[in-house]
């Protein structure tokens, strides 16, 4: 009868494997080093995975499935929003209407969820982008990127058709710019020991997207700097003495 795998040992093994993959890449990582890092024998490794590639595939599948779930939920939310509220109009953007702000908030929340997922799997994303060359996983991340560029581009096509987004920029350029930003942020996360303020990241990104993609006439100008208060000018000493002299010589 086969010995059951210890779930605690499995968690430690996966954590050690992820750390080793980041340091040496998928091809350079060795099972001996992974098991040594978590205090397991090499034989114990095979209770949990058939190979290091199979172990990495499990982690990647978890990440990919979670990402697909976020994307699907976001697309459903968008469809429900437009079915309930109708398409945006130019005045919604110009006046920052309630439904416009709700759409922005909904997108910001969705992007925060994406950032949180990227933070949780920042080591996996790093390996997919930089440590999976020559393996079956080397193009997986870029497949996710391509799908996201297509999704974001379609969103902006809809906004352009409703005349609530600038029409002088191709949707694929906007999609590539936004998704590329998230890819670079994911790469930065992999170098961070302390979790950044992801909520502020999401809001900052949407602030830039919102202000950069607004059609002409909808951009709110920056408030004018307040005028510097100046104290009343005091008369010069000579003028004061002249005034006193005149008052003495008067009737």
Automatic annotation (TrEMBL):
InterPro entries: Homeodomain-like_sf, HTH-type_TetR-like_transc_reg, HTH_TetR. Residues 226-241 have a biased composition (Basic residues). The keyword DNA-binding applies. Residues 242-251 have a biased composition (Low complexity). PROSITE patterns: HTH_TETR_2 (PS50977). This is TetR family transcriptional regulator. Keywords: DNA-binding. It comes from Archangium lansingense. The lineage of its organism: Bacteria, Pseudomonadati, Myxococcota, Myxococcia, Myxococcales. Residues 212-251 are annotated as: Disordered. Residues 30-49 bind DNA.
């Amino acid at each position: 009868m086969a010995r059951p795998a210890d779930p605690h040992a499995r968690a430690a093994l996966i954590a050690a494997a992820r750390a080793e993959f980041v340091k040496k890449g998928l091809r350079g990582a060795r099972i001996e080093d992974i098991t040594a890092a978590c205090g397991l024998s090499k034989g114990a490794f095979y209770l949990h995975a058939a190979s290091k590639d199979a172990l990495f595939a499990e982690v990647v599948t978890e990440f990919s499935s979670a990402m697909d779930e976020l994307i699907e939920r976001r697309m459903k939310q968008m469809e429900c929003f437009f079915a309930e509220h109708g398409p945006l109009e130019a005045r919604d953007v110009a006046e920052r209407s309630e439904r416009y702000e709700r759409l922005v908030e909904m997108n910001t929340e969705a992007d925060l969820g994406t950032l949180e997922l990227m933070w949780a799997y920042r080591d996996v994303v790093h390996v997919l982008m930089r440590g999976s060359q020559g393996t079956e996983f080397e193009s997986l991340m870029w497949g996710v990127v391509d799908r996201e560029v297509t999704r974001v581009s379609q969103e902006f096509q809809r906004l352009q058709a409703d005349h609530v987004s600038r029409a002088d920029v191709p949707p694929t350029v906007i999609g590539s710019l936004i998704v590329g930003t998230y890819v670079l942020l994911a790469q930065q996360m992999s170098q961070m020991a302390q979790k950044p303020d992801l909520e502020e990241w999401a809001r900052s990104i949407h602030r830039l997207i919102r202000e950069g993609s607004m059609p002409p006439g909808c951009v709110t100008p920056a408030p004018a700097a307040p005028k510097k208060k100046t104290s009343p000018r005091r008369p010069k000493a000579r003028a004061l003495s002249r005034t006193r002299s005149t008052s003495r010589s008067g009737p």
